[in-house]
Amino acid sequence: MHAFFTPFGVYPNNAIVGGSGDIAVGAALYKKVNRKDGIVVANIGDASMACGPVWEGLTFATMDQFNELWEGDMKGGLPLIINIMNNQYGMGGQTCGETAGYTIAARIGAGLNEDQLHAERVDGYNPLAVIDAYKRKRKILEEKRGPVLLDVLTYRYSGHSPSDASSYRSKEEVEAWEAQDSIAWFGRELVKAGVATEEQLVGVKGDTINLMESSMKLAIDLTISPRMDMAKYPNLIGEMIFGNESVDRMEDRAPDVNHPMAENARVQQLAKKERFAFDENGKAHSKIKTYAYRDGIFEAIIDRFYKDPTLIAYGEENRDWGGAFAVYRGLTEALPYHRLFNSPIAEAAIVGTAIGYAMCGGRVIPEIMYCDFLGRCGDQVFNQLPKWQAMSGNVIKMPVVLRVSVGSKYGAQHSQDWTALTAQIPGLKVVFPATPYDAKGLMNAALQGTDPVIFFESQRLYDMGEMFHKGGVPEGYYEIAIGEPDIKREGKDVTILTIGATLYRALEAADILQEKYGMSAEVIDARSLSPFNYEPVLASVKKTGRIIISGDASSRGSFMKEMAQTISELAFDDLDAPPVVVGSRNWITPAYELEDSFFPCAEWMIDAIHEKIVPLKGHVVKNNFTSAEQIRRNKLGV
Amino acid sequence: MPKSQFIDPSEVRKAGKITFNPIPVNQYNKTVEEEKANFSNEDLLRIYRDMVVIREFETMLNLIKIRGDYNGITYDHPGPAHLSIGQEAAAVGMAYTLGVEDFIFGSHRSHGEILAKGLSAIAKLSDEQLMQVMESHFDGITFAPVKNGHTGT
Ligand SMILES: Cc1ncc(C[n+]2csc(CCOP(=O)(O)OP(=O)(O)O)c2C)c(N)n1
Ligand SMILES: [Mg+2]
In angstroms, what is the span from residue A46 Cα to ligand 1's centroid? Predict the structure, then answer.
């Protein structure tokens, strides 16, 4: 199911129905943007035409901007053929007549663009009819009038899998198709036309059987075709999960840009900004003068755009708008359309096409505007992005940095921190910087690698200046190693480990602990979720003997819980009390005005320390962190 | 969104209708005799051969799955096998004209497409190029089993 052989142009097959429907679009985008020869064919089933991501891939592939806005040699359609292998069934559901409404799948083309995708139904029982279609459609692609949709009619006699009892179709139907079997028919035609003799055809069959027998013997002989030796190399699969490479550019050539970087208006503005949040008297600079978190991300990204000619970025409102949170402001002027563009509102296609683009050798930054929309690209983030490096034995690289912005003030469907969903999936690197210095350094590191990175940002942070790194955010290039937590404030009595924007509330808590209770807190910013180096945290716990872990995710099943469990196991002897998680409630995120009752704050952290770790003299709790309450909430599932 | 594109209300509010062009269905109608002008006998026989290879390959997999042997060679394969027996003409037709630099992506039912594309690429590569591919891909690990004494074509 996952076979591939890239030197012959055989790219991965996909066990997820319709999985290639957006990945192949990204491959065609790669060919176009990087001026590579060749076309891309997405072979997908007739039943897969119902899949949301396939539709999203089609809408992405048919965007008007390819013709209306992309300029020069970039003007024109994608070199892509959507090839429906229409065997007229899903597993047991019949498309025409039962599970679809298109009757003839080629009809789909009419709904997508004025060219109707140059759609056609072709008789897939005659190889020459299909070849004829490919010759004609290739011309259309060469004229940059793609994409093309082919509905290649065919039929499988075999079951969906050998265990299939074919209870969904009649014996007569299978026999009727077998009676028109394409191989037998074509053989007869060849003989009739004097192309080959009966004997020759029998010879072909005989040779083929010999080939299969000898191939099978070689394939099943473990001395000749050994399996991976997991006994001798127990980490072999683990070693394939990430490449951990460091690559400046995926290809060596001059990048397409509109002006030298130094002429960019945003770059020039940033040169005048204060790269540390406070002046020498400790007074905060004005917001307008402060180099902020969004600027750190911008600087890393524009730098890579001028280094790596393959780098492209896209997502919703990424171009003229500059991204919903103005991270890309200024990039529109610097880059032609084919390197920065607005995607359709199609998260599955945004990520899916990026996967295809990266598979073929390009670097790409897709963007998901709100973390809450991750569900819309679930398959791409959970099954595709993390898997293909290892599934290809590292032949395929996946230099994708998926930017995901965690919302705030925006209610139940726009304010959720779903970091745990991604950190739980093997094969993804997950980071969540909380400061401009870390944001720039981690983005640089993410873009220097060839592994997929989920880059969480927070809408609480975009305006924030750098408050920690002495001397402010460096103007030059630097990387922060993915996986390394950072001690933001040293202390000796309790450790507070935070994920993302909660850092600032932890610092508030640390101030209060110091002032009111004479307790010094060490505040550690996780910065990354996976990979994660526990050593600095363990060293801190060795010193403090106490730890709380805080983040904005709902606490049940969160990455904070994962950290708490790991720290319990690794630092048991050093701990005075079990690690305590202070996350958000297991509720919907309420409206901004009620957020204090949902997200962790300094007060909660102090109450939790008092209740669960060490009583604070004179402290009066406002929130219920007792074990009885924890049991009650769990019973209710809230 | 781009300012260069003006959405004119008096244009877009006009009455009108969308028209569609007919979508061709199974319009190809040449005979093999007629196609002899476009294909050599070897080409046509190769198309046949590629279909037979795919059919036999999947027949082998099917027999391994349901019987545990192919022509007396036994093997147990507990994993899945999604076969496309019957779909060979579609696969070979798709791949026949594609160049090595053309990419195909597939599904859970893509043995036929992969074999067709592989055979098509092999036909387009010189022996030297093929040797180079096989020796460098995966450091030659996938080449090793067939490097010596392979009896196939
Ligand atoms: C997302 C997803 N849903 C369901 C399945 C289970 N499944 C495997 S094949 C298949 C039918 C697919 O039909 P079609 O797309 O027409 O391809 P065909 O098998 O006919 O080649 C189904 C439902 C799956 N693999 N992935
Ligand atoms: Mg089907």
Answer: 9
Residue A423 has pLDDT above 80, yes or no: yes
Query: Does domain A487-636 correspond to CATH entry 3.40.50.920?
Result: yes
Residue ranges of domains in chain A? 6-194, 263-458, 487-636
Q: In angstroms, rounded to a whole number, what is the distance separating the alpha carbons of residues B122 and B126?
A: 8
**Is B122 within 8 Å of A200 when comparing Cβ atoms?**
no
CA distance A158 to A445: 49
> What integer is the mean pLDDT of B76-101?
96
- The pLDDT of residue B149 is 66
CB atoms within 10 A of CB A184: 12
On chain A, the residues whose CB falls within 8 A of the CB of B122 are 8
Helical (H) or strand (E) element with B108? none
Q: How far is A607 from chain B (nearest CA, A)?
A: 49
* pLDDT 10s digits, A229-267: 999 999 999 999 999 999 999 999 999 999 999 999 999
The domain A263-458 is classified under which CATH number: 1.10.357.10, 3.40.50.970, 3.40.50.450, 1.10.10.200?
Answer: 3.40.50.970
| Cis status of the peptide bond prior to A79, with omega within 30 of 0 | no
Tokens representing B88 are 């060979």
CB of A47 closer than 6 angstroms to any ligand 1 atom: yes
Torsions phi, psi for A289 (to 5 deg): -90, -15
Residue B52: φ, ψ to 5°: -65, -40
ipTM of the complex, rounded to two decimals: 0.97
Query: What confidence category does residue B151 fall into, taking pLDDT thresholds of 50, 70 and 90?
Result: low
- What CA–CA distance (Å, rounded) separates B95 from B115? 9
Task: Specify burial of residue A477 (Cβ count, 10 A radius: 0-12, 13-18, 19+).
Answer: middle
CA-based nearest residue in chain B for residue A151:
B25
pLDDT for position A48: 98
Residues with Cβ within 8 Å of A569's Cβ and at least 6 positions away in sequence, in order, are: none
**Mind telling me the catalytic residues of A?**
414
B70 neighbourhood in chain A, CB within 8 Å: 212-213, 216
Residue range A524-538: mean pLDDT, rounded: 98
* Per-residue pLDDT tens over the stretch A181-210: 999 999 999 999 999 999 999 999 999 999
Instruction: Please check whether the two domains, A6-194 and A487-636, share a CATH topology.
Output: yes
Question: What's the B109 CA to ligand 1 centre distance in angstroms?
Answer: 9
Q: Which atom of ligand 1 is nearest to the CA of B109?
A: 21
Is pTM beyond 0.90? Reply is yes
Burial of residue A536 (CB within 10 Å: 0-12, 13-18, 19+) is middle
By the 8 A CB rule, do B84 and B57 touch?
A: no
Q: What CATH superfamily classification does A6-194 receive?
A: Thiamin diphosphate (ThDP)-binding fold, Pyr/PP domains (3.40.50.970)
Other Cβ atoms less than 10 A from the Cβ of A342: the count is 19
Q: Which residues of B touch A19 (CB under 8 A)?
A: 107
List the domain boundaries for chain B. Answer: 38-126
